[in-house]
Design goal:
CATH superfamily: Electron Transport, Fmn-binding Protein, Chain A
Low-confidence stretches: none
Keywords: Oxidoreductase
Oligomer: single chain
Order of helices and strands: HEEEEHEEHE
Protein name: Pyridoxamine 5'-phosphate oxidase
Number of strands: 7
Largest sheet: 7 strands, antiparallel
Strand order of the largest sheet: 2-1-5-6-7-4-3
GO molecular function: coenzyme F420 binding; oxidoreductase activity, acting on the CH-CH group of donors
Pfam family, one: PNPOx_N
Strand content: 35-45%
Mean pLDDT: 96
């Protein structure tokens, strides 16, 4: 599914994003996260071993809400699935996101020994 231009603009800015994954019992798990795009997919950066990563490894289905920081009522709801989870480029990606969201280098809150992962999400359904 092609990402609409207005959604791409939100994904390329410091937008609010909430990512929902599924716990082993099927209940939702919600995380606020930074978000990005490669122009075709939605990109999220996470850490190996975090709950959302463990959930996605078991069940790749996700839902996201991406909202404009200045006008939260301007948002997109996306359902899809994680089609790739890789360490390749993930450290560089989190540094790029930190520049966008914080205006500086990533502070490595959990320590530099964390393994960063880049999640690639294919949208199956988009609503605004």
């Amino acid at each position: 599914m092609e990402l609409p231009g207005d959604l791409l603009a939100l994904l390329r800015g410091p937008s609010l994003c909430f990512l929902s994954t599924l716990m082993p019992d099927g209940s939702p798990q919600l995380t606020q996260t930074w978000v990005d795009t490669d122009g075709t997919h939605i990109l999220v950066n996470t850490v190996l071993g975090h709950q959302k990563q463990r959930n996605i490894a078991r069940d790749p289905r996700v839902a996201l809400n991406v909202a404009d920081r200045e006008r939260p009522s301007r948002y997109y709801a996306v359902r899809g699935q994680v089609v790739d989870m890789t360490e390749d480029g993930a450290v560089e990606h989190i540094e790029e996101l930190a520049q966008r969201y914080l205006g500086g280098p990533y502070p490595w809150w959990g320590g530099r020994d964390q393994t960063r992962l880049l999640l690639t999400i294919k949208a199956d359904r988009i609503a605004s």
